[in-house]
């Protein structure tokens, strides 16, 4: 199973990616998480990516693609994978398509689009808090931890991602509309776009996603 997960920032891609990957026993590969890991470890790639991420802009394609191919060459991704946050532009999608072709001809099975209205996306992103220790994601309104600011899972401190701050959120949404939304048409034309309503509790979205993938792939 080779999948890509599409949707605006705040659509719940991270949460659903983990659940879907588990259901189909494939690795969930998130370019945002890979970049954040590099930022945390202060690698050269991380230092470069941070300049773009802090503004809500996309990291240049050559950097992103190098990182993606490196990750996809891992043994665990040979049988399948779920890409979360990649591709983000039509050129990235074209490169993914031709690269998969060159690497044995196993193309994608589906592109799953998580559909969420704009105002809901802003509410979700502005209330999102991430555990600085284990990475678990909470929400001040929809999924609050027992004690404000403290992770229930590991006791770590909850922080707001720099790019979840209001100005950056607006920029990320603009970048999404301009660069990423056209992918819905791109994959629609290829006949493997699957769209689901991603509003409501994460558990229900997960069931919708898995059902749609089982029926559509
Ligand atoms: P995410 O966690 O998916 O929202 O990604 C956080 C940030 O990482 C984005 O706002 C971009 O700056 C960067 N990023 C993640 N994936 C990509 C990608 N496929 N292409 C370019 N930049 C990306």
Quantity of strands, as a count: 8
Q: Which stretches of 5+ consecutive residues score pLDDT under 50?
A: none
CATH class of the domain at 2-26 and 79-117 and 179-216: Alpha Beta
Largest pleated sheet: 5 strands, parallel
CATH superfamily of the domain at 2-26 and 79-117 and 179-216: P-loop containing nucleotide triphosphate hydrolases
List the secondary-structure elements in sequence, H or E: EHEHHHEHEHEEEHHEH
CATH names the topology of the domain at 2-26 and 79-117 and 179-216 as Rossmann fold
Indicate the structural class. alpha/beta
Strand content: 5-15%
Strand order of the largest sheet: 2-3-1-4-8
Helix content: 40-55%
CATH architecture of the domain at 2-26 and 79-117 and 179-216: 3-Layer(aba) Sandwich
Report the C-alpha radius of gyration, rounded.
Answer: 17 Å
Describe this structure in words.
This protein has 217 residues and is an alpha/beta fold. It has a domain of 102 residues: P-loop containing nucleotide triphosphate hydrolases (Rossmann fold, 3-Layer(aba) Sandwich). Helix content is 48%, strand content 15%. The chain has a 5-stranded parallel sheet with strand order 2-3-1-4-8. Strand 5 and strand 6 form a beta hairpin. Helix 1 packs across helix 9 and helix 2 packs across helix 3. The longest helix is centred in the last third of the chain and has 15 residues. The protein is globular, with a radius of gyration of 17 Å. The structure holds adenosine monophosphate (AMP).
């Amino acid at each position: 199973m080779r999948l890509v997960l599409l949707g605006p920032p705040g659509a719940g891609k991270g949460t659903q990616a983990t659940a879907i990957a588990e259901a189909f026993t494939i690795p969930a590969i998130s370019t945002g998480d890979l970049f954040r890991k590099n930022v945390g470890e202060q690698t050269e790639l991380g230092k470069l990516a941070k300049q773009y991420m802090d503004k809500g802009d996309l990291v240049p394609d050559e950097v992103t693609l190098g990182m993606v191919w490196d990750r996809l060459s891992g043994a665990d991704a040979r049988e399948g994978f779920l890409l979360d946050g990649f591709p983000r532009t039509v050129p990235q999608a074209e490169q993914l398509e031709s690269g998969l072709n060159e690497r044995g001809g196993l193309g994608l099975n589906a592109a799953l689009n998580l559909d969420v209205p704009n105002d809901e996306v802003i509410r979700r992103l502005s209330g999102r808090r991430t555990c600085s220790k284990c990475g678990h994601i909470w929400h001040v309104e929809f999924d609050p931890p027992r004690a404000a600011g403290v992770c229930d899972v590991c006791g770590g401190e909850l922080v707001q991602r720099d790019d979840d701050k209001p100005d950056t959120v607006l920029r990320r949404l603009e970048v999404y509309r301009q660069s990423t939304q056209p992918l819905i048409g791109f994959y629609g034309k290829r006949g493997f776009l699957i769209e689901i309503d991603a509003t409501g509790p994460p558990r229900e979205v997960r069931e919708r996603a898995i059902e749609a993938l089982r029926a559509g792939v």
